[in-house]
Amino acid sequence: MGVVAVVTGVSRYLGGKVAARLVDQPGVDRVIGVDVIPPPTSLACEFVRVDIRDAALGRLLEDTGADTVVHMGVIATPRQAGGRSVMKDINVIGTMQLLAACQRAPRVRHLVVKSTAAVYGSGPKDPALVSEETSPRHPPTSGWAKDSAEVEEYVRGFARRRPDVRVCTFRLSNIVGPGMRTGMTSYLTMPVVPTVMGFDPRLQFVHEDDAIEVTRRAVLQRSAGTFNLSGPGVVLLSQAIRRLGRVQMPLPPAVMPVVGRTLARGAWADFSRDQVRYLTYGRVLDTSAVENDVGFFPQYSSRQALESFAKAVQRHD
Question: Stretch 242-246: mean pLDDT, rounded?
Answer without folding.
Answer: 96
